[in-house]
């Protein structure tokens, strides 16, 4: 189960929001169409962080 707060349009994340996932990881940043899209930070439970651009739920390297 995940917990998400932020901006929603038609029940989907859109704009800025924060999601905490069942595995303990956390994403804070931009959303589009319920997917991580734009600038954001994904922090895993072990402390590893991915900060930068996301597109269609994927981190761009």
What does this structure look like?
The chain has 61 residues and is an all-beta fold. The chain has one domain (3-59). Helix content is 0%, strand content 67%. The protein has no helices and six strands. The protein has strands at residues 3-9, 12-20, 26-32, 35-43, 49-55, 58-59. The protein has a six-stranded antiparallel beta sheet, with no helix packed on it. β2 and β3 form a beta hairpin. The protein is globular. The mean pLDDT is 96.
Task: Provide keyphrases for this structure.
61 residues, mainly beta, globular
Short synopsis of the structure:
The protein is an all-beta fold and 61 residues long. The chain has one domain. Helices cover 0% and strands 67% of the residues.
Quaternary assembly: single chain
Chain-averaged pLDDT = 96
Order of helices and strands: EEEEEE
Work out the helix count.
Answer: 0
Look at the helices and sheets and give the structural class. Answer: mainly beta
- CA gyration radius, whole angstroms: 11 Å
β-sheet strand percentage: over 45%
How many domains make up the coordinates?
A: 1
Approximate helicity band: under 10%
List unreliable stretches of 5+ residues.
none
C-alpha termini separation: 28 Å
Biggest beta-sheet profile: 6 strands, antiparallel
- The gross shape turns out to be globular
Major sheet: arrangement of strands: 1-2-3-4-5-6
Please report the total strand number as a whole number: 6
